[in-house]
């Protein structure tokens, strides 16, 4: 009986997680179904492609959220900067990081 309860709990948890991911994808346009600006709630601003906007404030916020210290590799992952990312986006990211950080 206890095992059955665990299975039901796991099933419910997985459903909640999957539904949450689906809802997050549906609301990628930065407004939820109630018309509330989700960027204002989370502080995460995204462009039309769903990538995070690179700004002084956005990078500063990530550093602050990581208690004032964050590895460059982690920042690159958060802002989705890869080798194949456009050179304009890469240079904008480097410019902002140079202004904010001591490396």
Descriptors:
single chain, 103 residues, mainly alpha, 59% helix
Describe the structure.
By secondary structure, the chain is mostly helical. 59% of the residues lie in helices and 0% in strands. It contains five helices and no strands. The chain starts with a helix and ends with a helix. The model is unreliable at 2-30 (pLDDT under 50).
Short characterization:
This protein has 103 residues and is an all-alpha fold.
What oligomeric arrangement do these chains adopt?
single chain
Sheet having the most strands: none
Beta-strand content: under 5%
Number of E-type strands: 0
Write the layout of secondary structure elements.
Blueprint: H1 2-26, H2 38-42, H3 56-65, H4 72-78, H5 87-100
């Amino acid at each position: 009986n206890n095992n059955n309860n665990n299975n039901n709990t796991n099933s419910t948890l997985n459903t909640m997680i999957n539904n949450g991911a689906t809802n997050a994808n549906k609301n990628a346009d930065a407004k939820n179904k109630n018309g509330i600006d989700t960027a204002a709630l989370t502080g995460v601003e995204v462009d039309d492609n769903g990538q995070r906007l690179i700004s002084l404030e956005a990078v500063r916020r990530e550093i602050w959220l990581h208690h004032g210290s964050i590895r460059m590799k982690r920042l690159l992952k958060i802002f989705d900067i890869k080798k194949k990312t456009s050179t304009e986006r890469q240079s904008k990211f480097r410019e902002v990081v140079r202004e904010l950080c001591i490396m």
